[in-house]
Amino acid sequence: MGMLPEFAHSLGLSPAEAGYAITAYALGVVIGAPLITILGARLSRRELLLLLLILFCFGNLLSIAMPTPGLVEVARFITGLPHGALFGISALVAASMVERSRRGWAVGRVLSGIAISTLIGAPFSTFAANHFGWRMAYLIIGILGFVTFLGVWRYIPADTPNRKNSPLREVTAIGNTQVLLTLLTAAIGFGGMFAIYTYLTSVLQNVTHVPEWQVMLFMVIWGFGMLAGANIGAWIVDRNLDIAALLALAGSAVVMMAFPILLHNGPALMVDVFLVPAFVNALGPALQTRLMDFAGDAQTLAASLNHSAFNIANALGASLGSVLLAHQLGYGSLGFGGAILSACGLLVYLLAMLVLRRSGQIETRGAID
């Protein structure tokens, strides 16, 4: 997203036309997560991680070579294919390497990677694109992907593949009610964060009227909020998973309701810009760990679909924000819209808890290995 202006200028596109490359990537994430996981059902998790990283590197290098916007969009779609499965399987691998009581901590560490990429990677890629061109930025990202490939090859323990595992078995197992409700919580509950984040720069420039240099400061604070949320949420998960999810959803609704009240107060808004992603991102470890608890034979597919749900939330939140602004409701309405999505996510999670309690299966949760 940060490279969009330079990307659009170099290819002679409007920002709206250039945005289709982002849409293509997101579409790759949603489609690739279940597709790759099902096709790779008989591979070990380490083997699948290595293949996903190869595809990621290939997609970025392909993006550099494509001469026309349409072909670049195809390349971005290919690059997005491994995204969901990569994060989902990484979380499973990390959780399998620690004792059960520390699974939340392990998952939180993996999901911290998303926050760190927002905090460091996004500004760096924007800087590289502005000074050296977007193709050079993708080249650097591809090289870093290869470094990651070498790290996985060297440090991730080899696990035994299940050559008898059936892709159909994964698909069938995903029908568990608790898995579906957990994924629905993610698809709705994360949406509020994106309703605000998508238009945060516009809010800062047009409503809060902060100096140009402070816009980047707000973005960095947002990244720190994501990082704090992933780790604090993981800490709570290891003590009480349901409390972690409920606090994240309820807390995010409250701080989003405060967003329109604080729009004209820069320092106060800065605090809210930290708290919104902190509360929402605290939900990540809870939902990822909950999927491990209930996915049974569909561990890999469920973990991957969690990131498809995350991208659905991205589209849902951004679309809701667009609708609110198109109806002249003002930037403050983004906070109210986001709070509604968090509240709806909370209702879905409460429904999951109610269904589980009535089924009498509260403690019957599976292992991930």
Automatic annotation (TrEMBL):
Which residues does the UniProt record annotate as the domain Major facilitator superfamily (MFS) profile? 1-360
SUPFAM superfamilies noted in UniProt: MFS general substrate transporter
- Metal-binding listed as a keyword: no
Keywords, A to Z, come to:
Cell membrane, Membrane, Transmembrane, Transmembrane helix
Q: Which residues cross the membrane?
A: 20-41, 48-65, 77-98, 110-130, 136-156, 177-200, 215-237, 244-263, 269-287, 308-329, 335-356
What Gene3D superfamilies does this protein's entry cite?
MFS general substrate transporter like domains
Family annotation (InterPro entries): MFS (IPR011701), MFS_dom (IPR020846), MFS_Efflux_Transporters (IPR050189), MFS_trans_sf (IPR036259)
**Where does the protein end up?**
Cell membrane
Q: Name one GO cellular component term.
A: plasma membrane
Which Pfam families does the UniProt entry name for this protein?
MFS_1
Q: Does the keyword Transmembrane helix apply?
A: yes
Which protein, by its recorded name, is this?
MFS transporter
